[in-house]
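Table S2 (continued). Query chain:
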Amino acid sequence: MSVFSMTDYISWGIAIIGIILAVYFYRRSRRFKSIEIKPITETSVIKVSEQISDLKILHKNREIEQLYISEFQVRNSGRIDLTERDFIEPFHCSVGAEIVDSKIVKREPEECDFKIDKCEDNKVFFNSRLFKAGELANIKLTLLAKPNLDFSRNRIADVKSIKFAVPRKINRHLLGFLALIIGLVMSMFVSDVYDFISPAKRINISVQDSRNPINSEYHVSIIMANIGRLPLFVEDGLMIHTRELPARWDIASNYMDYRDDFLISDSSTLILSKFILLRDEVMRIDLWFTQSPSVYLRGVIENAGIYVGGGESMDFRLR
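Corresponding output:
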């Protein structure tokens, strides 16, 4: 059984859920400005690595050796709408290559006001009267060289820097460690859940016998353990049937003293009168015989699960 109770787990669960909700609503309530750039594709359409005398590649009547298509996304990732006043200078992106074509291929939502203003000096300039929180636009550029997107020259009120969305790499070692911790916690939790839904009254009964080679005395131990969540009441007492009465006996418990409660009913039966096994209580009855014994146990415990292990005959009934 776990050292923690079901109440402990419920308390911890409520505390953890409370912390998660507090962090979530705190982050949701924060108001801040932020712009995030997410590269989508970068494709080389044409790249001439070796000159061929009779081969010319033209783009709008202009001979070219390279042609790249770059697509990226601009998103207002903050909690506050951005207006023209927030941009201290025109919002732009330096691409490090000549731009031959530019267009917006996606807006979300469609009524998003973000648009391309102009392209000059290897830069593309954007314009938006109102760039609302959560809005995004995908920009597609055709360039005459490999692009290098640079948004670092922009200055926006209350925005320290423009973030680039980088795909997150999964740390497998950390993931494995977290899985191990979760597994251990769940194993403890499942153990307590099993104890919680299992019968409230459970008793484990075992009988062990041995023989002393020195004095040829036979020893029988009857062990009863309350492994449930509630006390057990043995209504009719415990009856121990044997071929002959033991020469001596002893009763021990980790909670109570039953030494004087043994009654002899006849020449072959011992009766331990009505008694209660408290939660986690273990009772041990030791019997010593001069001849090889045959022990038969009988008793009644109300609404209890009986778990019997090893030894002589038993007849514990449920009621």
